[in-house]
């Protein structure tokens, strides 16, 4: 699926941003008009044009709020939040760039302004975690206090807590689920404000979240599910292997190993004696996706070099771990996933728990990574499975 750009990475990130129109996070005309102004493969042009659009929509939101137009303000704040997130996406090559924090904070601020105007209750929550806290949101169907099935969602390699509303929480609320989203180490505020980098042993992140969930009377303790998105397709199953209070686990999409040493192998053909980091560094100059993956990885893993990034990702594997998962597990696969091709099948084969393999295809318009472009279809099929797994229907 190619949108506007020939560059695969730019096309995919445009698709990702535009896909959230389904849940109020974008307007297609705004997305395409912004994309047409961007210079192909140019990170600075990407930032400049998405920031310009975000600021314009942000101003519309402020104006609507000042004139008492609650719905218009909410909608514009939500779109501005998504556009600021998109603008910040390629900035991580220089982790000291002040625009990283400035633009991310604008995305968080506009989302929280939208949240104040929503029809369903949202709580900002702090989850105790190893002497500090993780930031999250708790979305409630209503204020009845009735215990409900609850979906915990975390993102992956580059997501923010605000994006998770569009990426799952909105759909959960529509179906009668409460939803708890959070940012773990390496994500959102945890990396930007606290300097907490990714860790491979994600059970030490999810267990405090489940501990928190069990303190809430509006969460049914027998109906707590966990979904991880993108790199979260490794992180969530890793957590589920050790955290057995979960009633179900969803890997969107499934990921068995996440090692930069393996990602670099295709570029090493015919270069058996070459230095891996040198080869990756060379490819970064020619391939937008590789450049972003390395720069973002160094930012989120707290690595000072490609060599260190390779070392820090070596433990990111479910070998010998996946067999410990006991709850029903859904492994999703995108037919043309350009990030993790073949990985979902490896995870599925390793599982010994009740398991389901769910493939999304190009014929359905759902072939891209995490099924961007077909989020309604994804949520349709995923929640049908979750309803059955939890016995809520």
From TrEMBL:
InterPro entries for the chain: AB_hydrolase_fold, FrsA-like, FrsA_esterase
Keyword vocabulary terms for this entry: Hydrolase
Pfam families assigned to the protein according to its UniProt record, in alphabetical order: FrsA-like
GO molecular function, one term: hydrolase activity
Entry superkingdom: Bacteria
PANTHER family in the cross-refs: CONIDIAL PIGMENT BIOSYNTHESIS PROTEIN AYG1 (AFU_ORTHOLOGUE AFUA_2G17550), DIENELACTONE HYDROLASE DOMAIN-CONTAINING PROTEIN-RELATED
Protein name: Alpha/beta hydrolase
Naturally occurring in which organism (per UniProt): Paenibacillus thalictri
């Amino acid at each position: 699926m190619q949108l506007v750009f020939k560059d695969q990475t730019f096309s995919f990130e445009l698709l990702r941003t535009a896909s959230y129109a389904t849940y109020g996070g974008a307007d297609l005309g705004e997305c395409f008009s912004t994309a047409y102004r961007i210079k192909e493969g140019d990170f600075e042009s990407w930032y400049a044009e998405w920031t310009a659009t975000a600021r314009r929509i942000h101003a519309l939101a402020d104006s609507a709020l000042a004139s008492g137009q609650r719905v218009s303000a909410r909608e514009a704040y939500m779109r501005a939040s998504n556009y600021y997130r998109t603008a910040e996406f390629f900035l991580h090559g220089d982790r000291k760039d002040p625009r990283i924090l400035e633009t991310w904070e604008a995305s968080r601020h506009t989302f929280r302004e939208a949240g104040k105007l929503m029809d369903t209750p949202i709580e900002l929550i702090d989850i105790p975690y190893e002497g500090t806290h993780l930031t999250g949101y708790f979305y409630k169907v209503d204020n009845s206090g009735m215990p409900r099935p609850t979906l915990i969602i975390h993102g992956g390699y580059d997501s923010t807590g605000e994006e998770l509303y569009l990426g799952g929480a909105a759909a959960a609320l529509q179906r009668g689920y409460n939803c708890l989203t959070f940012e773990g180490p390496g994500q959102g505020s945890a990396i930007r404000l606290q300097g907490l980098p990714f860790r491979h042993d994600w059970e030490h992140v999810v267990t405090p979240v489940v501990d928190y969930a069990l303190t809430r009377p509006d969460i049914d303790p027998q109906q707590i599910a966990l979904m991880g998105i993108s790199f979260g397709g490794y992180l969530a199953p890793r957590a589920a292997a050790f955290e057995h209070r979960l009633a179900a686990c969803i890997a969107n999409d499934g990921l068995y190993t996440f090692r930069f040493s393996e990602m670099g192998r295709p570029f090493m053909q015919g270069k058996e004696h070459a230095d891996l980091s040198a080869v990756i560094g060379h490819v970064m100059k020619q391939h937008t996706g590789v450049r972003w993956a390395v720069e973002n990885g160094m930012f989120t893993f707290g690595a000072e070099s490609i060599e260190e990034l390779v070392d820090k990702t070596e433990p990111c594997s479910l070998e010998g771990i996946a067999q410990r998962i006991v709850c029903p597990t859904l492994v999703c696969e995108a037919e043309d996933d350009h990030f993790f091709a073949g990985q979902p099948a490896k995870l599925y084969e390793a599982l010994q728990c009740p398991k389901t393999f769910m493939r999304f295809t190009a014929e359905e318009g759902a072939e891209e990574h995490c099924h961007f472009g077909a989020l309604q279809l994804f949520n349709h099929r995923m929640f049908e499975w979750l309803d059955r797994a939890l016995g809520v229907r």
